[in-house]
Amino acid sequence: MSSPKISGLEFSTCQFDYLIVGGGTAGLVVASRLTEDPNITVGVIEAGSPGFGDPLIDLPGRFGEAVHTKYDWEFETTVQEGLGDRKLEWARGKVLGGSSAINFFTWMRGNKQDYDSWEELGNKGWGWENMLPFFRKVETFIHPGPDQEKHKLDYRYESHGSSGLIQTSYSRQQGAHHEYWHETLENLGVQRRPTFDGSNVGVWTGLTSVNSDTKRSYAANEYYLPYASRENLKVICDSIVREVILEPINGQMTATGVRFESDGSEYVASARKEVVVSCGSVQSPLILELSGIGNPDILKAANIEVKVENRNVGENLQDRLMVAMVYEIESSMPNADDLRSNQALAAAADEEYEKHRTGLRTILPCSFTYLPLSQFIEEDKISQLAAEITDSWGENAASPRNQNLLQKLTSKEPLGQMEFVFDARNWYPVFGLEDGKKYGTMLQMLQYPFSTGSLHIPPKPPGKLRTTSDDKPIIDPKYYQGDGVLDKKVMAEGLKFGHKITKTAPLCKFVKRRVFPPPSENGNDEDEDDDLFEYVKHHTVSDWHPTGTCAMGGSQGSKYGVVDERLKVYGTANLRCIDASIMPVQISCHPQATVYAIAEKGASMILEDMRAR
Q: Which InterPro entries does its entry note (predicted)?
């Protein structure tokens, strides 16, 4: 494997046209596309190490195991009042390839309305029709064979890309429950449908970012590795960016370079044309603040000179919420829990994977359904929720963002507002496994949360000159607080429907009983609303899909956002953000494919602007 090998000193002496802060999902896409032109020189600075060849990253059936390793930043939130005064873990990829190296392999697109709403907010060129070419540009869809087709696939080949760098495929093997999934949801009135044509509502088998060799297809091994030998591309890993250097030139703050630390020494790398920040929804706003762009009150508390005032940096944080229920399932079926407790079985699974690319090391959670609220909440309740949130907004009810959220809440169109996934393993760490028993988990994720928070650099620690990138960020999503009270009510209703799925034929033949939350003493597992509210409060976790912290401002410009529709940071001449942080409002899907598409579009914009000069 061709891992990057360059010293901080050598990197700092290179002449770069573009510097990219962050070698993650988006950053490597931008670097790869720009350096297709041999006359453009690009440098990428990544905090993590390469993970090429590591089974924790490559093997589908080991998804999630890279969390809490060297590949994870291991962020955490502040104490969340709405969650019973709990802190939540926030996993983020600290590795070449970023979170595309440690995510759960899920590949999907949002609803057409998700992207159209970006354009309706004034971000010209960001609607569904504009995004579709970039979704296709990213992807090479591997046509399913007989082993995959038996899993009830619904797709249109022409909806996918055929020559992109990320390979997508359907798994050859599924969990034992999957054969019951589609019929169960159909018995509840949910239809099957292809999911890449602008609506994800329905029941379907999930597509994955797994290549033809049954390994992870991600930014580092697809956008970087084949092109690592390009003379005009330099990537330095294990290096921490301290700030983007901004200088007033011709009346505008201009990014001239990046200050970074590598092997214990600080260096400055220079950029002749632009600096691109692609550190994701957590760290992109932090880098801006450390560079002097943000809320003056926050910057002054950190003893950082204010260079561009923008109170939106780090605000508008929207993260999806997840809650789960655990069930005892048919014990004769093998599942991944067996591999955690039995080393012999784990070794056998590894051997089967290496020899045949089959077995438990290939299985991913792929039993999906996305549903509108009207599928599981009565219409009068939805109207009541809409009235409550409108009253709470008061004069702010007319703001474009609030109207966008309200429209999705009350929409009669097929929008996937709640995601349900069933997986034949125990996802809940506080629930202990009993020997001889098997467990499955019903997961639900709210797609359009009203909970909105912020993340920022902390004030200057005692004894330090200023806040630096070594200091832990203040991540406060404000789950179930303020407008987010509505989210808790919707999640409680979702739990009722998730439980209903498990009690519906034919899945109920596979699911024996609910074990967490435990039934009442008389064995009744039909919960009262107050009990559900308490369960949601104390057991909600993050779905790890934060967005919005460097949002496109649209028609409101810097009054609402951080970047314009060309992804340029307001108040600067040549600084861009390109990653999930630029989404103005959440989308209904796992965001991986969208982040790749944003990066492809961002790279295209950079090239257009360069050639127009």
A: FAD/NAD-bd_sf, GMC_OxRdtase, GMC_OxRdtase_N, GMC_OxRtase_C
The pLDDT tens digits for 234-281 are 999 999 999 999 999 999 999 999 999 999 999 999 999 999 999 999
Is residue 151 part of the annotated active site? The answer reads: no
The mean pLDDT value of the chain amounts to 95
- What are residue 605's phi and psi, to 5 degrees? -65, -40
User: Which residue type sits at 393?
Assistant: W
Q: Closest Cα partner for 209 from 171, 251, 152, 254?
A: 171
The separation between CA 431 and the C-alpha centre of its own chain, rounded to angstroms, equals: 26
Handedness of CA 86, 91, 92, 94 (dihedral sign): positive
| Cα dihedral 4→7→13→17 (10° resolution) | 30
C-beta neighbour count of 429 within 10 angstroms: 7
DSSP 216-262: B--HIIIIIGGGTT-TTEEEE-SEEEEEEEEEEETTEEEEEEEEEEE
Beta carbons of 182 and 206 less than 8 angstroms apart = no
What would the pLDDT profile of 325-376 be if each residue is shown by its tens digit? Answer: 999 998 887 788 888 888 999 999 999 999 999 999 999 999 999 999 999 9
Residue 92, token pair as written in the block: 């983020």
- pLDDT, one tens digit per residue, over 586-604 is 999 999 999 999 999 999 9
> Which amino acid is it at 508?
C
CA distance 20 to 161: 26
Residues 229/221, Cβ–Cβ less than 8 Å: no
- For 447-474, the pLDDT digits (tens) are 999 999 999 999 999 999 999 999 999 9
For helices 400-410 and 112-120, angle between their N-to-C axes, nearest 10 degrees:
160
Coil, helix or strand for 533?
Answer: helix
Alpha carbon 521 to its chain centroid, in Å, reads 39
Q: How far apart are CA 283 and CA 455, in angstroms?
A: 9
> How, if at all, do strands 166-168 and 139-141 pair?
parallel
In degrees, to the nearest 5, what angle opens at C-alpha 192 toward C-alphas 113 and 414? Answer: 25
Residue 158's CB is within 10 A of a number of other CB atoms, namely 10
Q: Beta partners for 19?
A: 43, 275
Q: Indicate whether 1 pLDDT > 70.
A: no
Annotated binding site for FAD: 95, 241, 544-545, 591-592
Strands (E), 278-425: 293-294, 308-309, 321-329, 367-371, 418-423
Task: For 298-332, write each residue's pLDDT tens digit.
Answer: 999 999 999 999 999 999 999 999 999 999 998 88
Is 590 annotated as catalytic?
yes
Q: Which two tokens stand for residue 97?
A: 């390839």
**Burial tier of 453 (Cβ tally within 10 Å: 0-12, 13-18, 19+):** buried
Place of tokens 């005032």: 309
Catalytic residue among 182, 456, 539, 545: 545
Task: Return d(Cα 161, Cα 143) in angstroms, integer.
Answer: 11
3-class DSSP state of 140: strand
Torsions phi, psi of 96, nearest 5? -60, 120
Three-state secondary-structure class, residue 498: helix
Rounded to 5 degrees, φ, ψ at 583 are -65, 125
151, 160, 182, 590: the catalytic one is 590
Q: Which residues pair with 421 in a beta bridge?
A: 368, 443
Give, in order, the Cα–Cα distances in Å from 392 to each of 145, 387, 402, 482: 53, 9, 11, 9
